[in-house]
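Practice problem: VOC family protein
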Amino acid sequence: MQVQTYLFFDGTCEEAVNFYRDALGAEVQAIMRYSDSPEPLPPGMVPEGKEHQVMHTAFRIGETTVMASDAPCGDAQPQFGGFSLSLDAADEAEARRLFETLAEGGTVSMPLDRTFFSPCFGMLTDRFGIGWMVIVPGEDCPEDAAG
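Answer key — structure tokens:
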């Protein structure tokens, strides 16, 4: 069994994928627009003028495949709450680069810092509303290191 992440954007899917390609080195594996559907879509599924939006895309970030699309049905407002994507960095320099890039136009909820569980950990929400945790794993930190 495998669980994969599927993100729904509100008309910004292609922009987000391009951002993740530049920021994280994401590799686009597939992209299909609503107008490319090999079968007719149900009436009203895609509002007029939005046929060019992304019906499905798959992209890899490191060893992970993430799938996404622009939310169909026009009035659907994607809300990315209750989860974050966790991104392992090789070292503090890479963590800072990734964190700063993802934070551009977004909101930092916990700046990168040393914690009891990581030499470098931080949390943010990117400009597309996706929550990220950036962590340098694998190093045991003494309990008093977070201060």
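Discussion: The chain has two domains: 5-70, 85-146. Students who identified this feature from the tokens alone can consider the problem solved.
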